[in-house]
Amino acid sequence: MAIKTWNRHVRDSLTSMWRNRWMSLAAIGAVTVTLLLVGVFIAVILNVNKIASDFENDVEIKVLISTTMNESKALELTQKVKKLPNVAEVRYVSKDDELKKVVADFGEDLSLFDQENPLHNVLYVKASEPQKTAAVAGQIDALKGTDDVLYGKGQIEQLFDVVDTTRTIGIVFSIVLVLIAVFLISNTIKLTIAARQHEIEIMKLVGATNNYVRIPFMLEGMWLGLLGALLPVVAMSIGYVSVYHNLSPLVQNEVFSFVAPANLLALLIAVLVLMGIIIGVFGSAMSVRKYLTVK
User: Fold this and answer.
1) Which residue ranges form the domains of the chain, and what is each CATH number?
2) Mapping DSSP to helix (H, G, I), strand (E, B) and coil, where does residue 90 land?
3) % helix / strand / coil in the chain, to the nearest 5?
């Protein structure tokens, strides 16, 4: 199609929007409200997923090395643990360093144990996948030289169940919300096109091809989707940055954190703009199709 024809289609689509501005505003409003809800929900789901992942990644196994083993033997045990399947990270901490940590956490009174340190040399182990923590802990427990292997048995399995359930619910709700968005926006666009049925019939009667009729409406749907996405993008950008900076200090000492605005907004803006444009174009194409056959 010639550039001149495309320019005419673009001009016609903008002119048509202005001529039918009240219907266009209604369609833009529907897109705006729906995409704003979608944006809020996506932000919540991404943060829930981030928090769940942080909790999973914080899971580690604490191995108390037998007090009968000297440091040389303890380091040999460390190498054995590193070679086990599904082990991603092993960190050795001597009993002296463990005592320093306890004193820092609970006060100088515990420094009395400097003379006779009752603690164990310790290994902190992380599995390659959080769900394999229990299996790795069982392998370590079978090695000689371990007094105890701690990983929150029973509780960790419950945590993983909660995380998996939360993710599943989030995915289901996301799909449902997107389908509702498609339904609401496309139906609003259908109403705007239905109100211009006679305009389409006249274009067909004077010899316009289906594509010639369809393309301006698809472009108009694109403009409606794009304009409807602008307010949600601005609102989410300002709102999320504000919420992030207000809530982040409250959890700075916790094992989890929220998704940084730069990371979330880049994805969110792309999703909202693409959703608005795709639904606008698709809704217009589907809506105008039924009026292309003049009886």
Assistant:
1) 3-56+158-289 (no CATH), 60-150 (3.30.70.3040)
2) strand
3) 75, 10, 20
- Joined together, the tokens standing for residue 49 give 């997923």
230-235 mean pLDDT = 90
Q: Are 258 and 37 in contact (CB under 8 A)?
A: no
Q: Are 138 and 84 in contact (CB under 8 A)?
A: no
DSSP state of 20: T
Rounded mean pLDDT, 63-74: 82
Per-residue pLDDT for 5 more than 50? yes
* DSSP letters spanning 43-89: HHHHHHHHHHHHHHHH--EEEEE-TTS-HHHHHHHHHHHHTSTTEEE
Which residues, in sequence order, are bridge partners of residue 260? none
Arithmetic mean of pLDDT over the chain:
78
Instruction: Give the residue, 104 or 259, on which the prediction is more confident.
Output: 259
Residue 85 pLDDT > 60, yes or no?
Answer: yes
Beta strands in 107-231 (DSSP E): 122-127, 146-150
